[in-house]
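Document type: protein sequence-to-structure record

Subject area: structural biology

Format: plain text, a pair of labelled lines:
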Amino acid sequence: MPSSRIRGAVGVLAVGAVATHLVSTVLQNTPDSYNQDLRQFTGGWPIPGWRFFAPNPGVQNVHLLVRDTKAGDAQPSPWRDVTPEVPHGWTQVIWNPASRGPKALFDAMQQLSVMSANQAGFTWVTQSVPYQLVFSASRASATADAQALQFLLMNVFPSAPPERRMKPILTSEWIPLDSASEHKETAG
């Protein structure tokens, strides 16, 4: 008999803990909850806080464009969009290991966008990890006989009027692609 009481008490405690956690999560994520900090009442138990779209909802897409030059060509190649496509389907909700690479590139492009918006010095930007990651992605898409490349980050606002739909964020300098200069860049 005592074991059934213990199991009952444990069950009640478990249900109470889950219910308390759910109620705390809902309260923490209400629209005005940014002023509240319920962690002081939970004794160290973490309460998830989700702000998926607020206060800055996503209204643009960031695209990576690349152009390169070849030996003997007076003009660079036209800009081409090399932004990785991310497949969307119902299975990606459950299992999507291919999203990590594009997500890392997207995060680096977003960070460069923030640096640009905050008027960061170009020298400082070119030495940052996000810039090097975007350069590496750009380098992977350059043609085999390219001598130098340049990349451009472009914000695209799908819902804006056509004349205000695209806004350049950052244009890199021309980056030589010979192995000596690439080795120097990665060593510096």
